[in-house]
Amino acid sequence: MPALSRNTVLALIGATLVLHTTEEYLTVPAYLSSANRLLRLLPPPEFLQNPQRQRVALVMATVLPLAVIAWAILRPRKALLVSVLFLECILLINAGSHMFAAWVRGGYAPGVITAVMINLPFGVYVLRRAVKEQWIPSRTVWQLIGIALVLQIAAWAVSWLDKQSKMPR
Fold this sequence. Notes:
Elements: H1 6-33, H2 37-41, H3 51-74, H4 78-105, H5 112-132, H6 138-166
């Protein structure tokens, strides 16, 4: 079986993003309406606690990266390729955060199925292939993963600090 072309791999990054955000889109409202330990520990920012706003944010978090992916396919440039691979790093780190959320919750958390079954293995495949085929150096992959991890931790910290600032003193 011939290897997938780079453009096909980039398009599949978009497809995995769509699958993942679709799972979240369909399951977040029930998740937000349920009382659970995770929401007490790391609540979403106030503006995302409304299911309608959450859905709008999920659509934007899908459409904008898809535009970058399409641009990278139609107008191949190194910066666009790195941007799409950074998106893949974000999806990979996000898979870890979904596993953490499911563990804290003691069960299902929105997005965990696609994160574990699709984004995690596909992310590893894409990044290994990017290094093997010299799309970008391994050092750059590790830097992108590090930046994605810092952004995830910062998002958690902002949510936690926002919650702390609203607690009665």
